[in-house]
Q: What sequence folds into this?
């Protein structure tokens, strides 16, 4: 689905999304998905050959498990925030990587580990992803220490990763137990651009047109969110 000019949303499962952005010399893929995701992306594009860059919003298995295969098959350069790079290289979320017991138990399941992979480029807040046609990094810690959102200027689209979920009852910041430091999430949401043409989410339908009012309402609501103590 074309979400905005230069932005294509690829459903890698029924609920999970990756994004393909037009760049100077080919595509930039934002997030990969589970191990089956490379095949879904190949089906969408007809070939993986034009993927030049892969930018990961954070190092959780549902975003990175297909990364090693995709890097091997495309030779694409791999980008992640410097604070999540050690997790990516370790092939799992570390034992202290979630605030709640439920999250920490999840990370012991072998199915939620991935083939370790080393990023080519470590990102920081405010960086522009070279060659990606105007892609800016917004550090949004909380869900993970190195979680990032990305603003793509040509389509005035923000890709929020797991900073915002669109499922169940509506928009939310997701379960606190699965986040590394839930108390950081309100201030991270305050850093997201408000006046955008579209919002791409890793989980759930994208937002544009009238649906953007729900995004604006969430940003407002988070300004007054009481502090979270980190317990599930
Ligand atoms: Zn996540
Ligand atoms: Zn996720």
A:
């Amino acid at each position: 689905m074309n979400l905005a000019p230069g932005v294509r949303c690829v459903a890698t499962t029924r609920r999970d999304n990756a994004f393909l952005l037009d760049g100077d010399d080919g595509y930039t893929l934002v997030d990969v998905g589970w191990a089956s995701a490379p095949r879904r992306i190949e089906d969408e594009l007809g070939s993986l050959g034009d993927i030049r860059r892969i930018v990961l919003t954070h190092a959780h298995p549902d975003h990175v498990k297909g990364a090693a295969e995709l890097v091997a098959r495309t030779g694409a350069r791999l980008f992640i925030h410097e604070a999540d790079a050690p997790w990516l290289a370790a092939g799992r979320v570390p034992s202290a990587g979630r605030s709640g017991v439920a999250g920490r138990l999840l990370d012991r399941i072998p199915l939620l580990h991935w083939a370790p992979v080393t990023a080519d480029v470590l990102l920081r807040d405010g960086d522009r992803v070279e060659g990606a046609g105007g892609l800016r990094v917004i550090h949004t810690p909380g869900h993970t220490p190195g979680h990032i959102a990305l603003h793509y200027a040509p389509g005035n689209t923000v890709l929020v990763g797991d900073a915002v979920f669109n499922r169940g009852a509506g928009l939310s910041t997701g379960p606190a137990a699965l986040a590394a430091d839930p108390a950081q999430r309100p201030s991270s949401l305050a850093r997201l651009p408000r006046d955008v043409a579209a919002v791409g989410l890793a989980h759930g339908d994208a937002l544009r047109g009238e649906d953007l009012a729900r995004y604006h309402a969430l940003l407002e609501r988070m300004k007054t969110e009481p502090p979270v103590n980190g317990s599930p």
Summary: The helical segments are 37-45, 61-64, 67-74, 85-90, 101-106, 185-189, 212-223.
